[in-house]
Design brief:
- There is one protein chain.
- By secondary structure, the protein is an alpha/beta fold.
- The protein has one domain: Formyl transferase, N-terminal domain (Rossmann fold, 3-Layer(aba) Sandwich).
- Helix content is 36%, strand content 25%.
- It contains 6 helices and 9 strands, in the order βαβαβαβαβαββαββ.
- The strands form 2 sheets. The chain has a 7-stranded mixed beta sheet with strand order 3-2-1-4-5-6-7, covered by helices on one side. The chain has a two-stranded antiparallel ribbon with strand order 8-9.
- Helix 5 crosses helix 6.
- The longest helix has 25 residues.
- The chain starts with a strand and ends with a strand.
- Bound molecules: glycinamide ribonucleotide (GAR).
- Glycinamide ribonucleotide binds next to helix 1, strand 5 and helix 6.
- The site of glycinamide ribonucleotide has 17 residues, from helix 1, strand 5 and helix 6.
Length: 207
């Protein structure tokens, strides 16, 4: 059974999807053992507490640099004996001290079709604003491993939705969450926990 540590910064609907998937048996061979938040008071922490999952808060604003912050995260992950780290709406880019120590053990959900609308500065609603302003007709979400470059690690799963003429960033965000993120993130986590993801030449393939 793998220890899954989930990192959050906000409302935690993806965390909720993971909790529900664990309860209903969709996640095989893994359990969420800790939730770490980069902010105090976010609703994701309530979701963890409501489900008896231990929490930690490591506030980003208390650290002067990304490296210092990442070192604190690394220490916590080691203490929690994390086998898999899931970034579920975690809005801080982790330094390579973490991404190298946990290479191919950190999974992120990004709310667009990588390699479009991704990288530094593309997070949360900003992604959907950029999608709408460009006028693309299809968007979606990407589940990928995390490496030293923002949103550049091996892609595990992607799913699409249509972009509609009257969409607002909020409406599009919700369609992508409901149809893609909340389904594919638990699926990728389950595949990982069952050792069903191969890495070949830096690319991920589902067995
Ligand atoms: C989700 O849409 C997630 O894909 C996105 O933030 C939202 C968090 O929602 N993540 C990023 O933009 C990371 N670059 P949640 O807190 O309700 O899961």
């Amino acid at each position: 059974m793998k220890n899954i540590v989930v990192l959050v910064s906000g409302g935690g609907t993806n965390l909720q999807a993971l909790i529900d998937a664990e309860k209903s048996g969709i996640i095989k061979n893994g359990r969420i053992t800790c939730v770490i938040s980069s902010k105090e008071g976010v609703y994701a922490l309530e979701r963890a507490k409501n489900n008896g999952i231990p929490t930690r808060v490591i506030p980003r604003k208390q650290y002067s640099s990304s490296v210092n912050y990442s070192e604190a995260i690394l220490e916590a992950l080691n203490e929690e004996k994390a086998d898999l780290v899931v970034l579920a709406g975690f809005m801080t880019i982790l330094d390579q001290c973490v991404t190298q120590a946990y290479a191919y053990k950190i999974i992120n959900v990004h709310p667009a079709l990588i390699p479009s609308f991704c990288g530094e500065g593309f997070y949360g609603l900003k992604v959907h604003e950029a999608v709408l302003s460009y006028g693309v007709k299809v968007s979606g979400a990407t589940i990928h491993f995390v490496n030293e470059k923002a949103d550049a690690g091996a892609i595990i799963l992607q799913g699409t939705v249509d972009v509609k003429r009257d969409d607002t960033p909020e409406i599009l965000q919700r369609r992508i969450m409901e149809n893609v993120e909340w389904k594919l993130l638990p699926e990728a986590v389950s595949l990982y926990c069952q050792d069903r993801i191969d890495i070949i030449d830096g690319k991920a393939y589902v067995k």
